[in-house]
Write a structure and sequence with these properties.
Strand content: 5-15%
Number of helices: 22
Shape: globular
Helix content: 40-55%
Distance between the termini: 51 Å
Order of helices and strands: HHEHHHEEHHHHHHEHEHEEEHHHHHHHHH
Number of strands: 8
Strand order of the largest sheet: 1-5
Radius of gyration: 23 Å
């Protein structure tokens, strides 16, 4: 027992004190090697943090690659040629933003960590408790699965490998598989895992690292750094069209034993909505599930402030497009007649700064020239709205339109009152409904009126063709809403791709993206994007 606490004392000191702040700094050229793993149990924890640290290098790259491909962003005159090439679909080898090395770097390190911890456990079967071993294995699996999924969504194909002894300068020697071929492999990793440990095991890191100590900030940050199994599985099942599984997992997850978390409720209504992106993440756990944290005081920063702000010393490389801002301006509020997205539009998602439009979503805490570069901007992996959008898509494609529209529009509370005596799954559990009734819906939370498919009638769904038309129209509303709700979060482009692919209709993506280009480019870009192969970042692996 004494040795147990000595081990954890070492871990705690290394994680908390600034003298060990390099535990979360990233050199993307590093690969964990044999000498990095001693025979002490504590090094297994630092090794796990080494895998987690790799997320910091790729999180902002994911935002730039995906949201530059929606209609949200366009380069400014300050932007380097590499960003302009991405914008114009002319990326080539050597493009620093298009290079997928940071993603493969994490995968190599995850593979190495899985090999080493399994070898250590075999040699020292009693050195590590089952709870800790399972948590470390399962968390590493999820880091790997999330990263491979992100690679697949961005590039359309991946070099897939489980070996840790891979030369990142020679990835072309690895067999390449498509996104559709990748998805079953990732589902299997989550469901079956490695050596009897799957990707669904969740531990309270506060209890592991700080046994007997009251919850504090460091505990909660540890609990947020790894993708949670529920949203990750929901996204995988959505891509593989296993819609019932999405709903089954989602309803239990947002219920959360009756807690006040993840409900899309008015707890974080009005100005509170934007604070989840700008305030200390542990104060916003009603909304936030998983994040990539950064700490200016430990020399950990991402590039969102540099690229989005035009306040010195920022670089102002990317700005919101007229097409994206117009979407917010055209929204109808809950009163039924006032125009403008009141809490996600101007002054929240974007605003006029120094005479030019900038993305503001991540900078509201510190915006003066002397302070803006100090913003500790965390990047969201999963939050409440993501889970709801997954459920809306799944419910819609199961033909459960009332339930889908409740989550999209004005919430579970009003669904329950309107359908009293005729409640349908997943809102047919009286005990769960007491808690779920707090849900206000994606649009009502930000004071916007409900939206419904146009050109198709819920009163006449007498044929399969009419039902499918309604599903497709509602899916397109999900695309529009995700573009506004999840702007700058690396979510909307993937939803757009998934839905366009589901209906075999590339115009769902092409029509939206093309509108942000100049009049001379609009048709050219639209025609280019009608080919699904052109949705993905083009970058050779050799």
């Amino acid at each position: 027992m004494k040795s147990y606490y000595i081990h954890y004392s070492i871990v705690v000191v290394c994680l908390v004190l600034t003298s060990c702040s390099k535990y979360f700094e990233v050199n993307t050229n590093d690969v964990l090697t044999e000498k990095d793993y001693g025979q002490e149990t504590n090094e297994l924890y630092s090794g796990y943090m080494g895998v987690a640290a790799k997320m910091q290098a790729l999180a902002d790259q994911t935002v730039f690659l995906s949201d530059l491909r929606t209609d949200l962003l366009e380069p400014t005159a300050n932007a380097p040629q590499d960003l302009w090439d991405l914008y114009n679909y002319k990326e080539k080898k050597g493009n620093t933003f298009a290079n997928p090395r940071t993603y493969y770097d994490l995968i190599v390190n995850a593979n190495a960590y899985l090999e080493k911890i399994r070898s250590y456990r075999k040699a020292n079967p009693k050195a590590l408790e089952d709870e800790h071993y399972n948590a470390l294995i399962s968390g590493t699996i999820r880091f790997k699965v999330w990263t491979y999924l992100t690679l697949g969504k961005l590039y359309g194909k991946v070099a897939y490998f489980d070996d840790s002894k891979i030369d990142l300068d020679n990835l072309s020697s690895i067999p390449v598989i498509s996104l559709n071929e990748l998805l079953p492999k990732l589902v299997a990793l989550m469901e079956i895992g490695v050596d009897g440990v799957d990707g669904k095991y969740v531990a309270n890191w506060g209890n592991i690292l700080f046994p007997g100590v009251a919850t504090n900030q460091q505990d909660l940050t540890w609990n947020m750094i790894c993708p949670s199994p529920e949203p990750l599985l929901m996204e995988l099942y959505l891509w593989t069209k296993q819609y019932t599984k999405v709903v089954d997992i989602g309803i239990r997850f947002i219920y959360d034993n009756g807690s006040n978390k993840f409900k899309v409720s008015n707890d974080d209504y009005n100005g509170e909505w934007v604070q989840v992106f700008t305030r200390d993440p542990i104060t916003r756990t009603r909304v936030l599930m998983n994040i990539v944290p950064y700490d200016f005081e430990r020399n950990q920063t991402n590039r969102l402030m540099q690229f989005f702000s035009n306040q010195s010393p920022s670089l102002y490389y990317l700005r919101p497009t007229a097409a994206a801002m117009r979407r917010y301006q055209e929204q109808i509020r809950y009163d039924g007649h006032t125009l403008g997205d009141q809490y996600r539009g101007e002054n929240y998602t974007y605003f006029l700064q120094n005479g030019a439009w900038v993305i503001r979503k991540f900078s509201r805490d510190r915006e003066s020239a002397s302070e803006i570069y100090k913003n500790n901007v965390h990047i969201v992996i999963y939050r409440d709205a993501d889970i709801h959008f997954f459920m809306i898509e799944a419910l819609n494609n199961l033909g459960m339109f009332d339930q889908a529209e409740a989550l999209l529009n004005d919430g579970v509370e009003l669904y329950l009152s309107r359908n009293a005596g005729n409640l349908k799954y997943p809102f047919d559990n009286a005990a769960m409904n007491v808690s779920l009734a707090r849900n206000w819906g994606i649009r009502r939370r930000v004071n916007l009126a409900p939206v419904h498919p146009e050109g198709v009638s819920r009163d006449d769904l007498s044929t399969t063709e009419k039902v499918d038309a309604y599903k497709k129209a509602l899916d397109k509303l999900v695309v529009e809403e995700t573009l506004m709700e999840s702007a700058g979060e690396a979510k909307a482009y993937f939803a757009m791709m998934r839905i366009a692919d589901r209906w075999n209709d590339p115009t769902i993506l092409a029509d939206i993206v093309a509108k942000k280009y100049s009049e001379g480019q609009t048709n050219q870009i639209r025609q280019y994007l009608l080919d699904r192969n052109h949705w993905f970042v083009q970058y050779p692996l050799n």
